[in-house]
Design goal:
Number of helices: 8
Strand order of the largest sheet: 5-6-7-3-8-9
Helix content: 25-40%
CATH architecture of the largest domain: 3-Layer(aba) Sandwich
CATH class of the largest domain: Alpha Beta
CATH topology of the largest domain: Rossmann fold
Shape: globular
Distance between the termini: 35 Å
Largest sheet: 6 strands, mixed
Structural class: alpha/beta
Oligomer: single chain
Order of helices and strands: EEEHEEHHHEHEHEEHH
Strand content: 15-25%
Number of strands: 9
CATH superfamily of the largest domain: P-loop containing nucleotide triphosphate hydrolases
Number of domains: 2
Length: about 230
Amino acid sequence: MIEIVGLRFRELVIPALSLCPGTTAVIGPNGCGKTTFLRLLAGLTLPEAGEIRIDGMSPRMTEIGWVDEFPDRNMLFSRVSDEIASPLRFRNENCRKTDQRVDELAGEAGICDLLDRISSGLSGGEKAVVSLMTALAAQPRVLVLDEFDSHLDQEMTNKTEKILNKAGCTYIIRCTQQMDLASRADYIVALESGTVMQFGDPDQVFGNLKGTSFYPPAWRLRDAAGV
């Protein structure tokens, strides 16, 4: 369980929130505190007050994979294969196992042809996929995704969703502007003006958001068809 108590950082104020294992989608208008919330969960930012505990441990004591909304901010190494391998090399993992893991991830994502490429020369979508594979390399307990899917076409979105479904992360917390993707999550956190306005499963949250811009397009079509 991820327990959040008395959390405050700038505009974000969350008195209490508990996130169960599974996938949680974070939604809300621009400027509502989504990225701040994700950075706090990932341990990249420390709260001004309150605390976050992931199964009793602080985020910085937990294996967490992070994918930034802007993939260039994720990348540390010039070559793609070195980038994906970096979390394992930082842990001094066996070189052979590290190479095997890189090949495995590249195969799953269909990016084997990118391994010898220079990271800066990739497209935005390619950088986003490489960043996701890098975040998954060390098989993190928690995976935090800040709108990485905004760089992907539909084909790659479908492929990465399959990868995420079998990634084995105990917690996936993702921010997305695609409400159809959000509706497939186990839980939804809807933020507004730095506070949690809605929390629950997709039926609960989106049921309360019917008629707003956050209601999933696929659900609108379903409702129109009377299904």
